[in-house]
Batch of 2 targets.
Target 1
Amino acid sequence: MTAIRLYDLQVRDDRRPSPFCWRIKYALAHKGLSYEAVPVGLTDIPAIAGGAHKTVPIVEEGGKTFCDSWVIADHLDEAYPDRPRLFGSPTERELCRFVELSLFMSAGRALLKSYVKDIHDHLLDKDRAYFRQSREKLFGCTLEELAGARAEHIDSARAGFDSVRLTLKGGAPFLSGAHPGYADYIVAGFLLWIASIGTAPLLKSDDPLLPWLDRVQGLYGGLGRSVPAGALAA
Amino acid sequence: MTAIRLYDLQVRDDRRPSPFCWRIKYALAHKGLSYEAVPVGLTDIPAIAGGAHKTVPIVEEGGKTFCDSWVIADHLDEAYPDRPRLFGSPTERELCRFVELSLFMSAGRALLKSYVKDIHDHLLDKDRAYFRQSREKLFGCTLEELAGARAEHIDSARAGFDSVRLTLKGGAPFLSGAHPGYADYIVAGFLLWIASIGTAPLLKSDDPLLPWLDRVQGLYGGLGRSVPAGALAA
């Protein structure tokens, strides 16, 4: 087996907030693969692999690089077919895509609006100017203006996870059923992201997402415990 | 093999609009099982199986009755394990539940508000008073008041399918991937329901849902073609 290197977004205090990197950290752990995590700032990404990729996660293995969490997950299932599969079937993979896309629609924009200034404030100094400029262009207003109106965006973002709450209400310990799977890693990635940088709680203290997130954080030797989930809930 | 009987909601002109019955008609076809469809009005349901069930679909087989689409789907996979499975894995089943629940959240209430008066108007005469009373209590206003404000509810209901559109944008012919599956039947059930009774179009004529729905309608000898999808789109 060749060495695997994962380029992982780094912010202040060596936190690693990227939701897309989180799902790949869980994917690597699911498959029992060890790797070297290489912390990078946003503005370091163009220097990786000759500027071939614009976002993290990037996985480097055997002289090749793989970018985009879906490309990486497919690569891992293809390169290590004898290890636990991330997608038990092509249908599972499509339905996991639906999970991601439905959460983008129901919660994604509201999450960004709620926490984009927190993300900015946690970035490494060298990354802030680029981030502020690109996000203010995206939203058509300043980060401070977004932060000022965030109470309603947080309410909307919280409600955007209702589909997950209802599914878990069926009684299974994980969104994927009796065992954790990629759909869990997708959703946990979103929440660990907010837990890493949020300065206002996203969830209520009795949210049924919290015991589920605690189970996910406890997987693989407590992989997700490096992020204190306490900041997520009021 | 014992005979299977499916109690299917009937409305005017012998239309069969129930979204939950549609997914079971597709489930039976997916498994290659033939059945006798028994048309029933809403107010006939308490007379079935000694009043054991409150909703359709109800499947009767070998002297037993099964109610609730999930119970029926599980029964079919359990009773006919040698036929194509509805759920290739327990994870697929959980993710299909997520598909249903996320669409309830994103589109369900807006669909009901948009089309509840159309549903009422298509019911058999004997079913209308019960339906009007229960739905006006649910929404706290008359069906006519809901119908008067439906343009914005239709916009909201249409947007509620964006997660499906985005998933299909990945290029697979079905929501479940290369082959149709229960997630397709869930979503198609919602659309065939509206196509059966709607008097205002839900979709735009260039909606990417339409070619997908056409594929689903064409399955199993054109099972869904009994519903003209033309009424769905402007």
Note: The longest helix of chain A spans residues 90-122.
Target 2
Amino acid sequence: MDVIATCDDNFLTEHRLPKGSMQLLNRTEADTLYAAMGPAREISGGSAANSMAGAAALGLKAAFVGQVAKDQLGEIFAHDMRSLGVRFETAPISGGPPTGRCLILVTPDAQRTMNTCPGASHELTVEALDPELIRSAAITFLEGYLWGPERPRVAMLEAARIAQSAGRTVAFTLSESLCIGDRREGVLGMIESSLVDVLFGNEDEVRHLTGCRGLAECLDALSPQVGTLVVTRGAAGAVAVDGPDRAEISAVAVERVVDTTGAGDLFAAGFLAGRCRGRELKASLETGALAAAEVISHFGARPEVDLRELVSL
Amino acid sequence: MDVIATCDDNFLTEHRLPKGSMQLLNRTEADTLYAAMGPAREISGGSAANSMAGAAALGLKAAFVGQVAKDQLGEIFAHDMRSLGVRFETAPISGGPPTGRCLILVTPDAQRTMNTCPGASHELTVEALDPELIRSAAITFLEGYLWGPERPRVAMLEAARIAQSAGRTVAFTLSESLCIGDRREGVLGMIESSLVDVLFGNEDEVRHLTGCRGLAECLDALSPQVGTLVVTRGAAGAVAVDGPDRAEISAVAVERVVDTTGAGDLFAAGFLAGRCRGRELKASLETGALAAAEVISHFGARPEVDLRELVSL
């Protein structure tokens, strides 16, 4: 669950939170920050969950595997997924940590600074996987945020292997350059072993991952290792490389950017929906950009309008 | 906690929910409706709580007395109150019903239809009152929604008596004409016994209460019995009668009305803040109208901008 409050730049400075970043908090740190935050609104979130909400809103058949606890926030999260038609069958856990929360601070420039108390989400294990479900899915989409803790990482790798053995597509989103640091080797290893068919990242993330400085170098370094590489560039648009095919778009104009949370998640959902529906590489980038533009025009990382109509899918 | 989702008119028809109304649901009914609702956002709510959030945002010193349970939604509610500087010391209850939820359905015309599962809120007892706090407050503000269940009604009457004995002002908001039905005698009795100094209601509510048809008749019937009578008229503005003093305003223009939840609550907060700060009757109505206009321009019944600046208090 996202707990979204606005704040000014001073609040971030006082609490030593680098603007635009994501940091993991323990319970005590989260409680302290929460007590200092202004009134908030609670909206379901989570990177891959946002993408699946978007995929469903775009008319795809979507399922989500992720761990919540048997508590009120877990019930709300499950409701919000299922009400969009997303299949969500991971049983909630009892007696462990509560459902994960992300304390999101949105500054007047619409940047979001995320402070995650992962709670139950890091308790996801390989036992939560339904191999039949994975084999039945055209795409298995994995998020980099869960690469850090061991259990979810093992579960994600197993899911990727099941999908690949069934001849399905594995997509991976790098999720936050700050997370990449000590996980770089592992993520690179997964990519080098050809486990990733579609890789999503923003410019910062691909730079951190490859160690290259320029975008062109990053694309050259990564694209031969993945079937499709998609790099989002915020207000500068996005670029994709798919074998010999290459496409670039500028960002969609947004009247007022309110909260950038979920931009990358919805971009990925739109891009994949475009590809699933047979759109060309460039048109799929444009589909992603439209979905991202919608989600940054309001608070929260879940679409608020009929996305399918918006992107004419 | 408000659980706010959008829906179309058909959804209301299918579920037999009269548009714009408030109905009480038991747990099973609430669970059924929730399962049928689309994805939602959770924002703290509650009529008097919204007014106190507004009062604090308007720079008044405010406290809230109301019952939540010791659960995640209760924690969120308490956080949202305290983060606005509202003193909130009612101890959460354990082992009883969970924190109250209101399932709010917002139609494209921005009307809200409220489906309340009152939970812990109806467990408020007279023991929750702090007589010192009440005696110290210039105004004790009571909400009609809690007039139905016996324990909160007894607590409200006791709070009114404590306030009156200390020479303080008692304000009462009628909250929903549909609630008035079987409570009419009791509310009228309280008004007739001069326990109410400031009475808030919308046109529908004062009609139901007085049994009069025209607004002028309603004003004539009620105003002699209360110090100040404030009747809100939606898009038609508002009118107030304070002894020989009478004022009327038109509504504040709103670029796009999104969700009318909380309009009356924030109107009351603005009006009382205006009066507390020495504004004239008409200027106080205008202060109320500005606060109401802000809250209907977005989802949720809590202000999202600096209200004090907005109304120049």
Note: Chain B has one domain: 2-310.
